[in-house]
Amino acid sequence: MTIEQFISNFESSIEGLEPGSIRSDTVFKDLPAWDSLALLMTLAMVDVEYGVTISGNEIIACITIQNLFDAVNAKRG
Amino acid sequence: MPLGLISNVRMAGVAAAVPKRRVANHESDLLTAEEQERMIKAIGVRYRRVAEPGTCSSDLCFAAAEQLLSTLCWTPASVEALIFISQSPDYVLPATAITLQARLGLPMSCLAFDINLGCSGYVYGLAVLGGLLSSLRIRRGLLLTGETSSKMTSPRDRSVASLFGDAGTATALELGDGANPIYFDLSSDGNGWRSIHIPAGGYRKPVTAESFVYGKAGEGIERNETQLILDGAEVFNFSLREVPKSVHNVLSFAKRPIDSVDYFLFHQANLMMNEFIRKKMKISEGKMPYSLPNFGNTSSAAIPLTLVTNTEVAQRAALGRVSWLMCGFGVGLSWGSALVETDRLKLPDLVEI
What we know:
heterodimer; A: mainly alpha; globular; B: alpha/beta; Peroxisomal Thiolase, Chain A, domain 1; 6-stranded mixed β-sheet; 5-stranded mixed β-sheet; 9 helices
């Protein structure tokens, strides 16, 4: 799993995000498209693409996309 | 998870009632037009029915039950079991089912009680009522499930205000030796009780004047302690984890392949979540009907309401044999699945009151 692929999955799962608009240091919670629905979309994407369950609070604890990527990676063991 | 089956009870008919008053989510004043469209697309709720202040869950269930009894040509005197499942009862006590026994003209020989469950309630109700009929040899019983969720959500909470609708349903079960077995899988996880709850109003936290003071719980979320709190992310994860498991459990217990199911009647949680589970389980689109677009999430009424309000599904069920996989999941946390086979189900038209 690469960060590039993760970013692309993130962009395509959340409505209102343009491809190429996200970088690894993007603070995703500051995005205009980020809300409670986007949170659910992210949970769903992580479940489908990476086969792991991450909690809402674990996502909220992350700041950048890199942090989120690392959290998912850690779960995959 | 107890797996079990009830072998001599058949489902005879299902009816549903909703309030006449229809609220359109695209007219919500909590959200901008763009937010409305996005939200409608994600949760899948375009319209909701909202009960008037004087209308209770019991009134909706009563209307559905009357309609069902008359369609089935069942005399009230022939019904000797009544279960009412709701989280919006008429009174703290007595149990609403008992008042409904009298309102419906059911005999005094009728057992009646309430069960406090939400989204999983319909499946639990089938198991409890079916089990009673079967073990006590009661000929006929009514299962009533209904909720007026609009009265327990904050109008200033955009995380829930657009999601829930009000409805009441009635399902008729009767003893029928030789009926196809109904298979069940029922589960609970009380560790998740906080995911969906109302803090004040029970005896753990009695209502005081302060219970009605609104507080800000997040962006666009203001509510007081007598109103519903829903942790969408927790419920989402729970459903994704447990629903496919429960469905597969009941199917493997019944030794039936997933393809043998005609329709999957799932609790109408929200469209994104249900669709996600559907795709994960590789269930074809045509096999999973929805009532979310027109009625919202109607808690324990969602499964029977979906059955009654999908014309094609209802027509097929009225004419012949249909095999259903029903799955309820939510508040508790509580969840369950049932594999039910029906033959020429009686399905009166939706009642509006």
